[in-house]
Design a protein that fits this description.
Chain A: It catalyses: RX + glutathione = an S-substituted glutathione + a halide anion + H(+). Chain A: It comes from Gigaspora margarita. Chain A: It is an enzyme of class 2 (transferase). The structure holds two protein chains of two kinds. In chain A, α1 crosses α6. The longest helix of chain A is centred in the middle third of the chain and has 31 residues. The mean pLDDT of chain A is 94. Chain A is of the alpha+beta class. In chain B, 59% of the residues lie in helices and 9% in strands. Chain B has nine helices and four strands. Chain B has a four-stranded mixed beta sheet, covered by helices on one side. The longest helix of chain B has 34 residues. Chain B is globular, with a radius of gyration of 17 Å. The two termini of chain B are 23 Å apart. Classes of the chains: A alpha+beta, B alpha+beta. At the A-B interface, β4, α3, α4 and α5 of A face β4, α3, α4 and α5 of B.
Amino acid sequence: MTIKVIGFARSTNTLRVISCLNELGIPYQLEPPADFAAIKKDDYLANKHPFGKIPVLYDGDYKISESRAICRYLVSKYQGKYNNTILIPHDVHEAGLVDQFIFYESFYYEPVVAKIIIHEIVLKTPESEIAKRALKDLDKVLGVYDKLLEGKEYLNGEFSLADLFHYPCAHFIYSSHADLWDKRPNVKKWLNRLRNRDAWKASLEKKNKL
Amino acid sequence: MPIKLIGYAQSLPTRRVILTLNELGLSYELEAVTEIHTIKTDDFLANKHAFGKIPVLCDGDFTINESRAICRYLVSKYQKDAKIVLIPDDINKVSLIEQYISYELSYFDPPLTKILLQEVFNKRRGEPIDEAIVKQAREEIEKVLDVYEKILVGKDYLNGEYSLADLFHFPCAHYICTDTQQGDIFDTRPNVKRWLDNLRNRDAYKKTYAE
């Protein structure tokens, strides 16, 4: 039975899961809900996600939600099965560092980028104080990332789940703030590597089709 | 070489790591950070935590930060020698635990942190408490706890058996009970109350909070 992902191909959280599926070469079907209201209905809350969120993944009868947990599940179960891509290394120390960088993404990077996405793209208020402050914060965060990436192609040396998690958010605001990313040489090269990965290009195709 | 933990024993993320060390029966040295400027130096940023945060764990030559990453690392490395299972082997069970860990990060922690910032940290700094923020955060956490109350029906722990996901939730919840006026949000929900009492009564928790 094919893996089923309930989500919107244009949502950053769903794109995180789609990228992971593509990186590991896992076949799947994307089933978008009717609209955003559908995921707040009682039936969805009772049977899919009690907080009314997407994505939700079904692997046969097994159901799991929360994009980063879903990706960890996919890696645990399918890494190495369809191709040789390693998203979480086997060595306990390297895996620990990938995990550390995943938390950098969760706490220092994603909240800031999410605010910019919400204000510029969803609410269409790019001049709001929140958006302006978030851009300043992002500038500082990218300064830290530029140092982290010194002498490295990816956050932990080799490509990992941590790098994958960062890209979907970046994709949505890169073109309107290219200077912020590009003025940092290591960040610029890193982002370029991520956007040119086959799995990301396949994910984007999905987003643009639906 | 013993494990070294750089942190502040009363800080929530440091507590998360100490709970895990105690559950796994691991000995460690706590290098207490008492002044914030020491974790913002160029050396600390370059070698310990790029964003100038604690805790940081040093295990021999290996350095790792971010409390939840540290805890997962400790479990991966040392659980096989311990008497406890914090992350089981079964993929399906592990993944649900990861899902609950994500719930903690995304839905449980943020509104509780807003309350703590107002009622504990602002108070400590002699700044006024913004009651509107506390009210909004409380409404938010009440909805979240209604979901937890359902998840915990007929269960002592989130995934049935005790796991790292339960441990991650405890420091913030406990701090709300001991240091704010909002502890009733847990007490008025019998399953949530039972869950927290189960945790509070574990030996590792009693040891952690006695220190």
